[in-house]
Amino acid sequence: MSQIQSWLVTGAAGCIGSNFVRYWCDQYPDNKVVVLDSLTYAGDRNSLADLETNPGFQFVQGDITDHHLVESLLREHQLNGIVNFAAESHVDRSISGPGTFISTNIVGTQRLLEAARQVWLGDGFSGDHRFHQVSTDEVYGSLGDDDPAFTEDHSYQPSSPYAASKASADHLVRSYQHTYGLHTSISNCSNNYGPYQFPEKLIGLTICNLVRGKALPIYGTGKNIRDWLFVDDHCRGIDRVLRSGEPGCTYNIGGGTELTNIELVERLCDLADRLIGDSKELQLRFPDSLAAKGVPSRSLIEFVSDRPGHDWRYAIDISRIERDLGYQPATQIDAGLSLTMRWYFDNEAWWQSVMDGSYQQWIDTQYSTGD
Ligand code: NAD
Ligand code: TYD
To answer: Which of 12, 64, 69, 67 is nearest to 35 (CA)?
Structure first.
C-alpha cells in the first residue's frame, strides 16, 4: 500500500478534479495537496472555495505545459505524487478546434511526465512516487449494441480528436513506466456527472436548460448509449488505484449504468417536474421552467443535427478493479441524478457565472435543428 502524502493535482478547478480534492482532503486531512490549474473556460477557482482555508491545500495558477513551473513545484513542496486531471475534455470542442487538445492533453502530459522523471528519478530522490493519469473509456472507440463492454485489454481505437489526444497521453504514460521506470498508473472511466460539472456536458446542460425553460438538444436519434458514473464513485475508484494499484497498472472505472441519451434526458425531465412541481419555493425561484407552469418538461426536447463521427456506445467492464481492489460504484443513477439536480438548484450563482456571454455565444453556434 502506497504511503505517498503530498500531491500535485492538476486541473482541479474543473469538475472531477475539484470533487477529487474535496474527497481527498476529507479522507486524508494530513496530506498536502497543491493544485495546478491554468483556469481555462472550464476551470473555476470558486469550485474549490471551501478548501482554500484547509492547511494542507494550496492553489497555483499555471499551465501543465510549463515544465519549469511543474519541476519547481515538485521540488519546493516535496511532492511525490501527481494526479493529472488537466485536459481539454469536451468532444464537441475537439471537433471545432482540436489544436488545444494536442497541446494540453498530449504535450502537457509529456511535460508533466518529464518534470516527474527529472525530480523523482534524478539525483538524490529515493522515495516512493506515483504519476496517475485520469483517462477515459473513449480511447477504446465505439461499441455496437451487442458487443461486450470494454476491458482494459481492448485495443485503442479512438475516433474523436479528444479521444485520440487522451489515447496518445496514455501511451506516453506507459512509455515512461516502461522506459524509465517511472511509477505510473492509469484509470479509464466512463461519463461522469455530479456537482461542479461545466454545463456543456449532457447532464449539466440539460439541468441548466430545464430550469431556464430552454430547449434540450439531443443529437441525432438520441439512441447513442453512455455508461454514467457519479463523480464521488469515480473519486473512490481513483483512491483505490492510488493506494493499492501496482505501478504500471491500468483500471477501468465505470458506473454500471448504460442509458440511451433520450432515456437519460427524459429521466431528468421527469425528475425536474417532480422536484419543482412539489415545491412552491422552487417554482418561485425558477419561474421560466415548464415545471413551474405545470407543463411537462419533456416538451423541451429538441432533436438536432448529429455530432460528426458520433460514437455509438460506450460500456465499461469493471471486473479488474472489483476483483483486485474491491471497488464497486455505490450511487444508483436515480439517486445520483437527484443529488446532482438539487446541487444545481442550490448553486445557481456558480453555473450562471460560468455560463457567461462568450460561452453562450459558442454554444448557440453549435446547435442547429435537424430535419
Ligand atoms: P473539466 O473540463 O471540467 O476540467 C478541466 C480542468 O483542467 C479545468 O479546470 C481547466 O482549467 C484545467 N486545464 C485545462 N488545460 C490546462 C492546462 N494546460 N494546464 C493546467 N490546467 C488546465 O474536465 P473534467 O470533466 O473534470 O475531466 C477531468 C479529467 O477526466 C480529464 O482528463 C478528462 O479527460 C477525464 N475524463 C472526464 C470524463 C467526464 O465525463 N467528464 C470522462 C472520462 C475522463
Ligand atoms: P457529452 O456529455 O458531451 O459526453 P461525451 O461526448 O464525452 O460522451 O455527451 C454525452 C452524450 O450526449 C453524447 O452521446 C452526445 C450527447 N449529447 C446530446 O445529445 N446533446 C447535447 O447537448 C450534448 C452536450 C451531448
So the answer is: 12
User: What's the pLDDT tens digit per position in 125-180?
Assistant: 668 999 999 999 999 999 999 999 999 999 999 999 999 999 999 999 999 999 99
**pLDDT tens, residue by residue, 297-331:** 999 999 999 999 999 999 999 999 999 999 999 99
The CB of 191 under 6 Å from ligand 2? The reply is yes
Is residue 354 lining ligand 1, measured as CB closer than 6 Å? no
Does pTM surpass 0.85?
A: yes
CATH 3.30.450.20 is right for the domain spanning 6-193+229-256+310-331:
no
Pocket flag, ligand 2, residue 202 (CB < 6 Å): yes
- Of all protein residues, the one whose alpha carbon is nearest to atom 43 of ligand 1 is 136
What is the whole-number distance in angstroms between the Cα of residue 202 and the centre of ligand 2? 5
3-class secondary-structure state, position 14? coil
CA–CA dist 347, 239 (Å, integer): 27
Residue indicated by cell numbers 457565472? 353
User: Does 37 qualify as catalytic in the annotation?
Assistant: no
Residue spans per domain, the chain: 6-193+229-256+310-331
